[in-house]
Amino acid sequence: MTTAAIRSLRGEIARRADIGKPLRLWLRDDDAIEPTAALDRLLALTAKHRVPVLFAVIPALTGEALSRRLADEGHVSVAVHGWSHQNHASSGEKNQELGIHRPSEQVLAELRAGLKILSTLHAGRFVPMLVPPWNRIAPAVVAGLPDLGFAALSVFGPEKPAPLKVLNTHVDIIDWRGTRGGRPVAEVIANLIGVSQSHAGPIGVLTHHLVHDSAAWDSMAMLFETTAEQAGCAWHSAGDLLAQE
C-alpha cells in the first residue's frame, strides 16, 4: 500500500511539472522549547534532505539553550507560538490560548512580549509570524497583530482573509483524534495529493517533534525521500514563501 501511495505522489508531482505549476511545500514544527533528542533528530533529518523548517517556539518557556542549539543550523527559522501555550477556554470547549476568554488587550500584550523575546533570541532567523496554539485565534486578536509588528499568521486549513499575510499548514502527520501517534504513510501521502489537487498556493506540512513515534518519523522520512530533487516540487522556507506571496 505504501508503494502504491508513493507512485501516486510521484504521479501528482509529474502532473504539476507538466502544467508548469510545481508543488511548493513548506514545513512547520510546533511546540519547540529547548534542545532534546527529538529536536536533534528532526534537525538531522531535515538537513539531510535539504528541507527548510520553521519552528513555532513557545516564548514563555524557552531561552538561550534553544537559541544556541539552532545558531549554526542554516535551514532553520523561528516564529512565535502564542505565549505560554496555556488553555484559557472553559470546560467542554476546544483548547484556546488566544480566544475570546480574556480581554484582547491582555492577549496582545503577551504576544508583543513573545515577539520581542524571540526576535532577540533568534535574530537572523526570526520570522515575524504568529502560530496560535491549537491553531485557534479570535478575530479581535488577529486584527491587532499588524500593530504589534507581526507580518504573517499561520494556522491549519484553508487560508481565510486577514489583515496580514496568511501561510497555513494543510497536512498534519499526527493522528490527534486516534492514536495520537503518526498517521500511516499512505494516509499522509493521500492527504497531500488531495490538497495538491484542490489548493493553488503553498502547502504546509505540520509536525510536532516532541510527540513523534516511529510512525511519524517514518512518514517524514518517506515524504522527504519521495519529494527530494523532483522537477515538479520543492521545499521552501516560510520566509521565502511570504516574500513571494
UniProtKB/TrEMBL annotation:
<protein>
    <recommendedName>
        <fullName>Chitooligosaccharide deacetylase</fullName>
    </recommendedName>
</protein>
<dbReference type="GO" id="GO:0016810">
    <property type="term" value="F:hydrolase activity, acting on carbon-nitrogen (but not peptide) bonds"/>
</dbReference>
<dbReference type="InterPro" id="IPR002509">
    <property type="entry name" value="NODB_dom"/>
</dbReference>
<comment type="similarity">
    <text>Belongs to the polysaccharide deacetylase family.</text>
</comment>
<comment type="function">
    <text>Is involved in generating a small heat-stable compound (Nod), an acylated oligomer of N-acetylglucosamine, that stimulates mitosis in various plant protoplasts.</text>
</comment>
<feature type="domain" description="NodB homology">
    <location>
        <begin position="33"/>
        <end position="116"/>
    </location>
</feature>
<dbReference type="GO" id="GO:0005975">
    <property type="term" value="P:carbohydrate metabolic process"/>
</dbReference>
<dbReference type="InterPro" id="IPR011330">
    <property type="entry name" value="Glyco_hydro/deAcase_b/a-brl"/>
</dbReference>
<dbReference type="Pfam" id="PF01522">
    <property type="entry name" value="Polysacc_deac_1"/>
</dbReference>
<dbReference type="InterPro" id="IPR049591">
    <property type="entry name" value="CE4_u4-like"/>
</dbReference>
